[in-house]
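RETRY 2/3 - previous attempt timed out on the joint model. Re-submitting the same 624-residue input unchanged.
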Amino acid sequence: MSRSQPAGLGRIPPLLLVPALLGTAVVVLPLLGLVSRSPWRALPDLLGEPDVRRALVLSLTTSTLTATVCLLLGLPLAWLLARGRFRGRAVLRALLTVPLVLPPVVGGVALLGGFGRTGLLGGPLREAFGVSLPFTTAAVVLAHTFVALPFFVLAVEGALQAQGERYDAVAATLGARRWTTFRRVTLPLALPGIAAGTVLAWARSLGEFGATITFAGNFPGTTQTMPLLVYTRLQDDPSAAYGLSLVLLGLSLAVLVLLRDRWLRGAVR
Amino acid sequence: MRGLEARVVVARAGHRTDLDLLAAPGDVVAVVGPNGAGKTTLLHALAGLVGLSAGSVRVDGRDWTDLPVPERDLTMVFQGQQLLPHLRARHDVAFGLRTRGMGRREADRVARAWLERLGVGHLADRRPHQLSGGQAQRVAIARALAPAPAVLLLDEPLAALDVRVATALRIELAQHLAAYDGVCVLVTHDALDALTLATRVVVVDDGRVVQEGTPAEVSRHPQTAHVARLVGLNVLRGTGAEDRITLPGGTALVAVDPPAGEALAAFPPTAVALHAHEPEGSMRNRWPVEVRALAPHGGALRAQLALTGEDQDLIADLTPRSATELGLVPGRRLWAAVKATEVTTYAAGGGTADR
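RETRY 2/3 succeeded.
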């Protein structure tokens, strides 16, 4: 690092250095606390518990499903936002960004209002088909998608914007219709951004708590994901909560490494 | 009618392009003019990438005016790097063949043949970042020619290349364009491109056509200072009467039999002699000038000179040695002399006199 910074530009000003160090402490200290207080030896036993196994499997399943749904719905959305020429595009983008700034609990309440037993769509759905979404695994995926989709859409739209319409124009002059251009040019070129967006959505889903517990409840086996289990265990068995948190930390770190890899490859390309 | 009939009107804030273009199959029309004259706008409008404010585009009798880009039977070589970054050269060249319904194998065969024809057959499996500028441009030209479109649009195809590469490619491009039987519209700022590649030259300035003709006509009798500079000539505009053309500021330019009325006088920069003091002798044209700028030009030095009392510039070529002797620096006042017999004169032809 010292090599990439020419000494000639002078020393780092303390007014920048001190807050930066404080910021680092705020982030790193809790992580160190988590690692140091975790019951490392009991970890294998903990992971053997049926509740824990179920929560872990559920978390991984719902996260993967959420990432897939984000990909299927979010990619067309991102394309529309980046390439579409229609009125209300800015409004659509603003609406889609709302979950980013919304407290997750409020998101859960909103989901109940929309898809709950008496919700906007949930009510008619129950009357017509007898289907009820809340407190099912599907509700978990729905809540996670609500929260994660904006991350995905913004990441991919950014990639599409950065790519620009230059190559779309080239493809069009070669006789490619829009779908062909999307498939053969836009999509392959946006792949790093799409991968980053998918990983972001997956990670966001893995950590989701507020919207899930509000809309889907906390039922072992069907809706109790890892974060919910951590919260539950914290009440009566803090040591187990530390252990489970450590597992989640490990998963998050793995995602971070994956993301960094994509970023690096993006920079080299 | 076969070929291209277009009237392209593109109005933007503070700028209007209004150009007519007629071309028969086999024509290579060079569009030349200064930056911002509307050349690239014209190409993009023909391609459908820019909408027309008015006018129409017809190709081989078919109305293209409201046709989406992919449905127009054209290809385009864009300015600057424009190969698809993720494709190998042969896939890039095959792209336009596949969209036209050619099978995968046949498209690959034709693409390879075209790459071969442009001398880059051995690079068929390379991606753009593994190609030099000249190689990439060869692939781009192969890609544009391979589908044999009704209209081929070339936007400064040789501009980004270094001189040696551009010269070699220009000769090859001339051969390919001669064999191509659609309409080619070539935008260039290089007189050499226009002279060697084109069958017809259209000079645009400020969004309008100001001159049209064969390359020889346009280069012999340029109607605008811009084209005069492109072909390396001095052109002065004034009013002809008896043995002279009088410039707007009163400067007299003596020539042999100039046309009456609005007239142009052309002479090469090598015909301009520079003197520190007013020269005596047989030179009939002696004008006070001020040095504006100096630039190397081949082995010589090209001086840009402002004619005192006039709004027109001259260029003069001289050896570096005489430049040193004259103490040539911007701002220096000198005398320029031109022999009357070196000056060609012709009537200013409101744009289309050469047609």
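The CA atoms of residues 108 and 214 of chain A lie 5 Å apart. Closing ticket.
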